[in-house]
Amino acid sequence: MKVTKYSGELVHYDEQKLINSLRKSGADQSVAETIVKEIESELYEGIPSKKIYKRAYQLLKNISNVHAARYNLRTALLGLGPAGFFFEKFIAKLMQELGYQTKINTFLQGKCISHEIDILLLKNDLVTLVECKFHSGQDAKSDVKVPMYILSRFNDVKDRKYDLFSAKRNISKCTIVTNNRFTSDAIQFGECSGMNMLSWDYPQKNGIKELVDTYKVYPITCLTTLTKAEKEKLLILECITVEDLILHPNNLKNIELSRNRIKNVLKEANQLIN
Question: N or C: which end of the chain has fewer CB within 10 A?
């Protein structure tokens, strides 16, 4: 049985891969196998992988909203677009959990030109420049031109001192973050150039998906009890993560949810965090 990937490439259907993705969401083995059995009864030659994912998500949601929310994480990151401004804020929140101080959207005059920097980080008295590359399509990848371009921006600002985090500081490191994946050439160039790189699944076992689960910094866009329009309203209110929602539950009143809806949303949010 062949499956059509987002890119249009045909690949063999992998039952174990689907089971593993369901298990990573928190579903136990029997639940994962039951869902896979149901999906396999609906398969046909060339079925889009997107359709398999959606069906798995629906079946998982019928069993557990929290498991479905975790399973939906990669799609939830796409919900932080389309421009990627909310993705930058989300990454800043994630970096704070990793122990960094953060500044968002800072303008710095380089040696040659002025630059708007997505995120600046401070830890151990070292400042890191972070540039975020957001893709609105699930199959898009950041190719080698991205680290090459960002390296040139870093080189233009690294030799100057700036008033950053209450002191005069140099920018000593450079990091690239994307919600999707890097091409192999992009990774090779980035590593050779001494740049840090973070994507959905890179570095291996320490990419965005692992960091989000480890530090429980889930975007509100993964919640299954909110509509797309409601999530967009919350993002505008600076409610970026599930923890933001728990800390400021009045935002749910501000977007005019009923008392019962608020109860259900907060129940899912607290279960996801805990």
Answer: C
Q: What is the mean pLDDT of residues 232-254?
A: 97
Q: Is the torsion defined by CA of 48, 52, 53, 58 positive or negative?
A: positive
Residues sharing a CB contact under 8 Å with residue 202, sequence separation 6 or more, in sequence order: 181, 182, 187
Centre a 10 Å sphere on the Cβ of residue 35 and count the other Cβ atoms it contains. Answer: 22
Can you give the residue range of the structural domain that contains 210?
Answer: 85-215
Task: Measure the CA–CA gap between 137 and 78, rounded to whole angstroms.
Answer: 8
| pLDDT tens per residue, range 42-62 | 999 999 999 999 999 999 999
| Domain limit, last residue, from 71, 103, 130 | 71
Closest C-alpha to 65, from 183, 218, 211, 177: 218
Assign 108 to helix, strand or coil: strand
Task: Return the pLDDT at 143.
Answer: 97
pLDDT of residue 5: 86
Same domain, 160 and 245: no
In a domain, 77, yes or no: no
Backbone phi and psi for residue 138, each to the nearest 5 degrees, phi listed first:
-70, -25
Q: Could you tell me if residue 80 is inside a domain?
A: no
Q: What is the pLDDT of residues 128-176, one digit of tens each?
A: 999 999 999 888 999 999 999 999 999 999 999 999 999 999 999 999 9
Does 12 fall in a domain?
yes
The pLDDT score that the predictor gives to residue 154 is 97
pTM of the predicted structure, to 2 decimals: 0.92
DSSP per position, 17-54: HHHHHHHHTT--HHHHHHHHHHHHTT--TTEEHHHHHH
**Buried residues in 71-99 as b, exposed as e (16+ CB within 10 A):** bbbbebbbbbbeebbbbbbbbbbbbeeee
- C-alpha distances out from residue 65 to 35, 70, 262, Å: 15, 9, 15
**Residue 58 within any structural domain of the chain:** yes
